Amino acid sequence: MLLTTPQSVVLKAVAQFQKIEKYHGTMPRKHALAYGDDAIEELVAQGLVEWAKFTYGCGKQLKGLRLTVKGQRELDLAGIGLDGPRPSELAYEHLLILQDLYHFCRMPRYRRMMPEKKSRHYLASDFEDLVSRGYILKVRLKAEGGATHKGFVISSKGERALGASTLV
């Protein structure tokens, strides 16, 4: 697939935000405003990027563009590459939830998030505790065709806690 120059610039910019933990791999909307709306809309229509909305435990929301698996493949084909934790304060059950969530966030099948339906298999109080403490973030993705997907992703704080444990 051939990309226009503005589209490739936007795609590269979104890819650069993948490693920034503060934004959870999402290019914030305020940064996306610097690029043309037409280029962004075309990339969303082609399925190379998608709109993501994160909701933090305190009520703050972050809306932005996130690179899809298809978009990452397109970058790879184009040859554009981007190149001591404290002991955990979490209970074993919390770590098991984080471990499952970590693996869900690596699966393209579920759009790299744990769907809301799958999260109902866990004890609600444990899951909500992790959300309120900032280990898990709520996500709402707006995909092509107007479909909205709700789910959860592990935050950088959750990944650090999981890395400090012996489960992974």
From TrEMBL:
Protein name per UniProt: Uncharacterized protein
Taxonomic lineage from the root: Bacteria, Pseudomonadati, Thermodesulfobacteriota, Desulfovibrionia, Desulfovibrionales
Highest taxon of source: Bacteria
